[in-house]
Amino acid sequence: MFSMRKNKTKWMVKVAMLSAVAVVLMLLEFPLPFIAPPFYELDFSEIPVLVGVFALGPVAGVVIEAIKVLLNLLINGTITGGVGEAANFLVGVSFILPAGIIYKRNKTKKTAAFGMTVGGTLMVIISCFVNSYILIPVYGAAMGLETSAFVKMAAAIYPSIDSLWKMVLLCVAPFNAIKVILVSVLTTVLYKHISPILKAKA
């Protein structure tokens, strides 16, 4: 009984630590102006979430993702009544959860890479629909902007963009693909150094 309680406490501490790191990384965001309009900003907050998924399991990853989004909401507030944050949570989970489930079945480097590839692909696809039907309309309404205003921002990068879906396919999808690749590579490099600490029984 004491051992189970101790293990649960250790699990919670590790989840809390990774969540804190994720929040800090989420605040250190930057745009990719050659790919997407400047309101799309890249951050590496999914790295500690993926580390948690691989070291502690899929449930831990979802919990870390949720805590990250909630803490960011408390720190920065919201202009969408939480809708934008919920959508971002959905996009994040679509990346980390498949990766964690696949890795849990066979814990090898190849499986981890395959899991991140599957999760990353799913994230890019889901982010296209989330941006088209939730994020852009909701943020537009919150800021008093028509959808066409966002399309014009994207057209400044790619003149051929004349619709929301072209913007999503030419800006949002590549932006998220770059994020997936960078996060996956960095997670692979960092995991072997961090996982022994997270898996330590002492």
Descriptive terms for the model:
single chain, 202 residues, mainly alpha, Arp2/3 complex 21 kDa subunit ARPC3, two-stranded antiparallel ribbon, 7 helices, 2 strands, 2% strand, globular
Describe the structure.
The protein is mostly helical. It has a single domain (2-26, 41-199), classed as Arp2/3 complex 21 kDa subunit ARPC3, CATH 1.10.1760. Helix content is 79%, strand content 2%. The chain is built from seven helices and two strands; from the N terminus they run αββαααααα. The chain has helices at residues 2-27, 46-56, 58-76, 83-105, 109-143, 147-155, 164-199, and strands spanning 30-31, 41-42. Strands 1-2 form a two-stranded antiparallel sheet. Helix 2 crosses helix 7 (164-199), helix 4 (83-105) packs antiparallel against helix 5 and helix 5 (109-143) crosses helix 7 (164-199). The longest helix is centred in the last third of the chain and has 36 residues, at 164-199. The protein is globular. The model has no long low-confidence stretch (mean pLDDT 92).
